[in-house]
Amino acid sequence: MATADKVQHQVERIADHLERVQLAEYVQLLNSPRKLIVSNLIAGTARGVGIAIGVTIFSATIVYVLRQIGALDLPIIGHYIADLVESVQAHMSGGGFYY
C-alpha cells in the first residue's frame, strides 16, 4: 500500500503543478492584449470556416438526397421566387401585396 500512496501523492502533486501553470498562462494571456486579440481572431476565423464547410456539406447532402428521390423540382422553387419578387416589386411601387 505504501507504493499506491506514493503514486497517489505524486499524481496530486503533478495535477496541482499543471493547474498552477495553466493559471499562469491564462494570466499572462490577459496581460498581453495583442496575443489575446490574435488568439481570438484565429479562433473566430477557424470557427467561421468550420461552420461554412459544415453547412456546405450538409446542404449538398440534402440536395443530393432530394434529387435522388425526385422531390427537388427546381421550376416550382423558381416560380415561388418569381411570385415573391413580384410581390416585393408591387409593394415598392405602392400597389400593396397581392396573392
Question: How would you describe this structure to a colleague?
Answer:
86% of the residues lie in helices and 0% in strands. The protein is mainly alpha-helical and 99 residues long. The chain has a domain at 1-31. The longest helix is centred in the middle third of the chain and has 37 residues, at 33-69. It is elongated. The chain starts with a helix and ends in a 7-residue tail after the last helix. The mean pLDDT is 83. Keywords: Membrane, Transmembrane, Transmembrane helix. The chain crosses the membrane at residues 41-66.
Radius of gyration: 29 Å
**CA-based shape:** elongated
Count of helical segments?
3
Question: Gap between N and C termini, in Å?
Answer: 83 Å
Order of helices and strands: HHH
Low-confidence stretches: none
Please give the number of β-strands. Answer: 0
Structural class: mainly alpha
Helix content: over 70%
Beta-strand residue percentage: under 5%
